Amino acid sequence: MSDNKQEQAKVNLKLHLIIFFFVFHFCEILHAQHVQLDSLKRFVENTKIDTLKADRYNKIADLYKEIDPDLTFSYAQKAIVISLKNEYHFGLATAYLNKGNASIILGNYSDALKFFKDAQSEFETALQKERNKNRIKSGLARAYASSGVVYSEQGDYTSSLKNYEEGLKLYQQIDEKEGISKTLNNIGILYKSQKKYLKALQYLKEAHQIQIILGEKNAPMTLTNIGVIYFEIGEYQNAIQYYQKAQKGFKKNENKRGSALLNNYLGDYYAEQRNFILANEYYQKSLALYEEIQNKFGASLALYNIGLLLQEQKKYKEAVHFATKSLACAREIGVLDQTYHTEELLSELYESLKEPEAALTHYKKSIIARDSIINQETSKKFAMAEMNYEYKKKEALLSEKHKREFQLIVFSVLGGILLIVLGCVIYNRMQVKRQLTLKKELAEYEQKALHLQMNPHFVFNCLSSISSFIVQNGTDSALKYLSKFSKLMRLTLEYSKGSLIPIDKEIESLQNYLELEQLRFENKFEFEINSTENVEFNVGLPPLLIQPFVENAILHGLVPKQGKGKINVDFDVQNEQLICTITDDGIGLSESKLLKENSVTAHQSMALNITKKRLKIMESITSKSARIEILELNSKNQTGTKAILYLPVQYIS
User: Fold this and answer.
1) Can you tell me the distance from the alpha carbon of 380 to that of 386, in angstroms, rounded to the nearest whole number?
2) Rounded Cα gap, residues 110 and 92, in angstroms
3) CA distances to 36, 74, 355, 532, 622 from 39, in Å
4) Which of 359, 485, 517, 536 might form a disulfide with 350, Cβ 3.0–4.6 angstroms?
5) Angstrom distances, CA of residue 190 to CA of 26, 61, 163, 177, 218
6) pLDDT 10s digits, 238-274
7) What is residue 572's three-state secondary structure?
8) How far is CA 215 from CA 26, 184, 224, 259, in A?
9) Which residues sit opposite 238 in a β-bridge?
């Protein structure tokens, strides 16, 4: 076999191995995946929120793609059913994405492309309608990158590059480093397959820099691929330097497939340097690793390389042994390319051994394999052309259908508008007066609540405590008290005029207020503020709503109590309601009423009255339930008071 043929054979055969490592990013932690799958399945069984259930089904589908692609389809379909029912476009798009990835693994490229196109369309719709833009852009980027994988496998490098670049642009917009590095890696491999080595090096090196920052385990494979490019352009010193860096990386992060491929490349390097001993050593290491992980494709390639090496040394009988084993592996897994080159090698070896009949037999078989490859490529091109034609045809029909549907919708809307306008005008006049009244009342009650929270007695007590600390040489404590007081003032003034305050800021405000009251009453009580995992970070609630109940719990429940008390403030979301619970183990409602003075009673009544009116206004604005319950705890185990606020779940943009 000529040097050029040998080199081309190696390039063609190893390209499939590179694609396996860099494009699909398969992981080797199946045990951890099974544990995660069990956890997700338990979650799905217990959750009642449809959108969360769809997300978990999609996560399960994604994990199954490496274990059982058929189960990926099954769980993705469950997510589709729920998402369609709830018009949840992100869940629908992610399900299509999962089906597309499973189709790639099963080799159904036309189906994969269709699923990815559907995913892109749904992600675009989600961008217009749903809040979490970053996760939607991340999903859209994956859909484009996955389309790039399919086009690359089909040999349509122009479309592949276009899709990779679209995905890369989106990843860069949201600064998703892992997605950026993987897409850069894929683009580098794409340029390598086209022999545009300088471009390939540029992208692969950029990807590797990000991998170092992220500590990615795939970084040694990127180093291997960079070394391969230097080897192919004849810069052998650079090649061996990157191979050696990759070796160190694989020692830190064990990857048997990666190590096997690297050892193959090291064998190529030492064969080029005419160091046949080291070349054979590395080929044998590669073979042992491939056999250990039962990778017949890699084993066939390693055996073929050993056969070539022995042919170079004129050890023809030994070469026949390895070439025959390589051919057996190639035939077993049905790899025509490997079969063709190995049959050709065996023909040459038997010719060198002066066995013309065997040489001719293998030569004929190599011709059959070569013709099958040509026919396969031709069929592939025809199938791709037919697929593109059908896709464009369907796209044109769909466009015409959408046009007709749009016209029908426009005429229907115009007719409907004419009928609705009169009703809207009458209804609007009635609503304007009502809305103006509600807004006016809301502004008045918010202002009253602000005055209530920032009452002069509280401010005076805080300043008196600071003064007392200073007189008693407690400068550090006074500074700490003053710092918390100023922070509470700033938070209160900053958010008191808005309609909603973020849940974390409300918790921070309550934390400061309770710590101040602890200092004021000399640690008369303990407190604890909790928020369950159901409460999302962007949940909001009306400002100045919780503090009066906390103040009442301290002043009327814990301060009169003998000994130390405790306050619990809990936030939870259930049945689309934000539930705020303030619990104290004080003297309770009944005993508190006997101890209150008239001024304090009026103050408490004012706080409760204002809160009830604010809740009523909130119900009018959101059209959702908003109420309060105040319960007396009177049992052997616990006494005290519990105030529970049921608020509609609202989100801050």
Assistant:
1) 10
2) 20
3) 5, 18, 63, 19, 36
4) 359
5) 18, 28, 12, 20, 17
6) 999 999 999 898 888 888 888 989 999 999 999 999 9
7) strand
8) 17, 16, 16, 18
9) none
